[in-house]
Amino acid sequence: MSTRTRNGTKLRAFTLVEVLTTVIILSLLAGTFGLARSAFENDSGLPRQEALRLAHWLTNFMTISNRSGRPFSLICPGNVAESFILAEWQNPLQTETYTSLYGCKFIRYQGTAPKSLYSPQWNSLVPTITIKVSRGLAEHFVVISQHGRVRTTPKP
Question: Where are the domains of the chain?
């Protein structure tokens, strides 16, 4: 780490090998930490992404219902977590399925009724519903209000 000059004074400096070794070690540590952190964030962010996707799907359904005047029923699992949610159009009867893209599970967070009916005439959903979107320990919530407003939230 130190060298002597011609006149005998001591200079303190790092050699090129020491500097490069330190830079390589710090780069490896930063890269490992960054990869581990991004893997953790991606896994915990999946329920949020799925909740946003579900909220867009539900909003689109309500918009179509409002424009066409057709009511629909939203069928969400009650006590069992499922990877899908059903929407059942009325007049004529048609069923559409929303399936999880990120491997998340859906469960009705509040209430026991398996169906909620959306009426475009009154622009309302009865009974209201909160859907828990989960994957492992990570979770996010989709809340649909009585007036058909859809929002996502990390806590119910």
Answer: 45-153
**What is the spatial distance between Cα 145 and Cα 151, in angstroms, rounded to a whole number?**
9
Going 141 to 145 to 150 to 151, the CA torsion angle's sign is: negative
Rounded CA separation 24/36 (Å): 18
CB-CB neighbours of 47 under 10 Å: 26
**For residues 74 and 110, what is the distance between their CA atoms, to the nearest angstrom?**
14
In which element (H, E) is residue 151 found? strand 150-153
Using a 10 angstrom Cβ sphere, with 0-12 exposed, 13-18 middle and 19 or more buried, the burial of residue 104 is buried
The CB density around residue 132, as the number of other CB atoms within 10 Å, is 20
Per-residue pLDDT of the chain (156 residues; tens, 9 = 90+): 556 666 766 767 788 888 888 888 888 888 877 766 655 555 678 999 999 999 999 999 899 999 999 999 999 877 788 999 999 999 899 999 999 998 999 999 876 778 899 999 998 999 999 999 999 899 999 999 998 899 999 998
Domain 45-153 matching CATH 3.60.21.10: the answer reads: no
* Six-digit token string for 44: 């915990």
